Amino acid sequence: MIIIGLDTSLTATGVAVLQPEPVPQCAVYTITVKPTTESSPEAAELRRMRSIVARIDALDSGPGPSLVAMEGPSLASRNGKAHERAGLWWLVYEHVTEVWQVPVVVIRPTARAKYATGSGNAGKDQVMLAAARRYPDFPITNNNEADAVILAAMGARLLGAPIDRLPAKHLEPIKNLS
Predict the structure, then answer these.
(1) Which three-class secondary structure state does DSSP give residue 35?
(2) I need a labelling partner for 125 at 20 to 30 A (CA). Which of 40, 90, 146, 151 fits?
(3) Closest by alpha carbon to 64, among 53, 56, 72?
(4) Under 8 Å CB-to-CB from 149, ≥6 apart: which residues?
(5) Which domains are seen in the chain, by residue range?
(6) CA end-to-end span of the chain
(7) Residue 88 CA to chain centroid, in angstroms?
(8) Is the pLDDT of residue 73 over 90?
(9) What residues form DSSP beta bridges with 104?
(10) Model-level pTM greater than 0.90?
């Protein structure tokens, strides 16, 4: 069984490829793609998004994943490029469901934070610290990778192969996913 956690981003997409059994192992990646110069800014963004999808696709060598856990859009986010971030999210979602033909569970950012820290309002650095402490054998180097690992761990728990022991408070978001 393989679970992939995806934290999509135009600047640094986090990917975790988790094999929970027999001993939890996780490969962690950050995908960065610089914008290109095109005839229009829209064409440049589309090329960038397609490049991110292609880099995610290249990670699927060997047996395909059983599940992909994707962080849902942060609808309250005040960061720029909301339109472009939504476009990337949908391109990745389409690729996973249509090309890989793998089920996707969409996890709200607050659910990811609560699973990691016990608080749905935890910041990205708090989530990263919790993930690094909980999974010291996983090569987490940044917030995006930490988010992807947490998403993959949530996916493993949904499939009945938890890789961690957590207090009940941390598990509340799982009840809303199953």
Answers:
(1) coil
(2) 90
(3) 56
(4) 5, 16, 18, 26, 28, 131, 135, 138, 140
(5) 3-177 (3.30.420.10)
(6) 18
(7) 13
(8) no
(9) 68
(10) yes
